[in-house]
Amino acid sequence: MPEFAVWAPLPEQMRLDLDGQLHDMTVDDGGWWRADVDAAADARYGFVLDDDPTVLPDPRSARQPDGVHERSQLWDPSSAQWSDTHWAGRSIEGAVIYELHTGTFTPEGTFDAAIAKLDYLVDLGVDFVQLMPVNAFSGEHGWGYDGVLWYAVHEPYGGPDGLVRLIDAAHARGLGVLIDAVFNHLGPSGNYLPKYGPYLSSVSNPWGEGVNLTGPDADEVRRYILDCALRWMRDFHADGLRLDAVHALVDNTAIHILEEMTAETDALSATVGRPLSLIAESDLNDPRLITPRDRGGYGLTAQWDDDIHHAIHTAVSGERQGYYADFGSMSALASTLRNGYFHAGTYSSFRHRRHGRPLDKSLIPATRLTAYTCTHDQVGNRATGDRPSQNLDYGQLAIKAALALGSPYTAMLFMGEEWAASTPFQFFSSHPEPELAKATAEGRKAEFADHGWDADDIPDPQDPQTFLRSKLNWDEIDEGRHAELRDFYRGLIALRRTEPDMADAWLQHLIVDFDEDERWIVMRRGHIAIACNLGKQSVGVPVTGEAILAWGEPEVGEHGTALPGHSVVVTRAG
Q: What would the DSSP string read from start to end of 11-67?
């Protein structure tokens, strides 16, 4: 007999609606309501609060087959069919991660369709698949960051059973799976938590009301978050989480929720007998996130590093708008590659204040920072969702790849970047409420119009074509230059495994030389040198040895290398 339980300190009365039949519930002193009632394994249920006849979904619902506004459905994780007992897992440190959006990764946009592409990812050489949020959100399609039922799996993707099949298939191929989890806010449609209890705080962030981490009854809200995080790794066998915008988690308690989460994740790791990783998205440049707990940090496995992205992208592309203003020089690129952060207690012109803190390179290896040339944010949050491949030539794309994948950092790709996908990745949504749909579309246009974009050029997030345009075109992957770039990526990834010097994770061993005027840069890792010419004119670079990978037609001689414009060469010293 299942127990139905929900934490709801606000209502004075609570009833369970089970397949249309109402059942009384009892409450304890902590605000937990419970009822033991016989139910079929796939029963539909919800809760009726006080005198309001509306049946609300379970805040810890595992399934929402009819959407986030309707009844929940029971799903027993012990019924899942797993075949991954052989999977020993691995840490993400030093790995290559492949970020993808389930709905646009394939034409079908489902977990099962993604399974058919896993062999391609294995051949490419990646180690982990990182799924953009798969929690339940309102509408058929969206990015997933406006989730409202954090425990449920988005039904159009395939629901919880589909996610089980995808992760099981990935493990069978030696691929780990990370899930993007959003705990800093909830979406605007289908968030019924305030009716149950004080889940939200008075502190807002750019995406809505924040979550109650420090106010009255915060302990239960924190437990709600921690249990959700652990559930993805325990019940769905995920190998870790990417934690969205942790700088928006306002927590002034003595033990920050991130520290608490890492401690409980480590305990779960010991129980399941495989590594579990937590990756933070943070714009704080604060090394405490990735400093071990016994050294006063939060103990997260790794952190996204936007400074590396900005330094590489601006140096190659020439863009300088917004938060790119302090980047673009070869000096800034070299400094960021050497130190992990560019802003480390230094003045940020974008923020109009000092920003960041230096990384202790003797304590924290480079593998605790994640380097990338693209993410869903850095593409999708551009006004038109244009990829670098829509603005740069193939040589420039190869340079960006060489600097990120050739670095000692943990590396990440965004789906399709490896073949210079021609499709954009735009911001799309499918809110069913007309008012919310209108507000989303108008807000998007107004945001970018303030930055000088023509409002008519901004795609309407609610237009189904915006979503369809963002789907990858797999037909182009084996065509001409697309295929050449894909093979270059494959070669770079392979070098991370086959060259012993590429395994050195300590930044104090990394040597970076550059010429500001001629716009070349050389990253040296032991016997390996990665030389890039970001300029249009051919230059001479002080690199010798055996050329083992190249883009363009470099000429490596006994006394140096001639690098054509927008070209790359990787050499191995004798």
A: -S-EEEEETTEEEE-EE-TTSEEEEE----TT-EEEEEETT--PEEPPTT-SB-TT-
Q: Look-up: residue for tokens 């033990």?
A: 255
CATH code at 243? Answer: 3.20.20.80
We report the CATH number of the domain holding residue 37 as 2.60.40.10
Asked about 281 being catalytic, the answer comes back as yes
Tens digit of each residue's pLDDT (9 = 90 or more) over 308-337: 999 999 999 999 998 999 999 999 999 999
Q: Tell me the two tokens of residue 113.
A: 């369709």
Residue with tokens 């055996």: 546
| Average pLDDT score over the chain | 96
DSSP E strands, 212-294: 240-243, 277-280
- The DSSP result for 394-433, as a single string, is HHHHHHHHHHHHTSSSEEEEETTGGGT--S--------SS
**Catalytic option among 281, 286, 418, 499:** 281
Q: Is 381 annotated as a binding residue?
A: yes
Cβ burial of 205 (10 Å; 0-12, 13-18, 19+) is: middle
Same domain as 179, residue 224: yes
Whether the Cβ atoms of residue 212 and residue 200 lie closer than 8 Å to each other: yes
Query: Is residue 556 marked as binding?
Result: no
Where does the pLDDT of residue 452 fall: very low under 50, low under 70, confident under 90, or very high at 90 and above?
Answer: low
**What's the domain count of the chain?**
3
Q: What is the pLDDT of residues 384-427, one digit of tens each?
A: 999 999 999 999 999 999 999 999 999 999 999 999 999 999 99
Structure token digits, residue 396: 């420039």
DSSP 2: P
Instruction: Give CA 477 to chain center in angstroms.
Output: 23
Residue type present at position 234: R
| Identified catalytic residue from 127, 168, 244, 460 | 244
User: Is 242 labeled as ligand-binding?
Assistant: yes
173 is in an annotated binding site: no
- Mean pLDDT confidence for 332-344: 98
pLDDT at 177 over 70: yes
- Per the rule left: phi > 0, alpha: psi between -120 and 50, beta: everything else, 225 is alpha
By CB atoms closer than 10 A (0-12, 13-18, 19+), residue 53 is exposed
Active site residue 244: yes
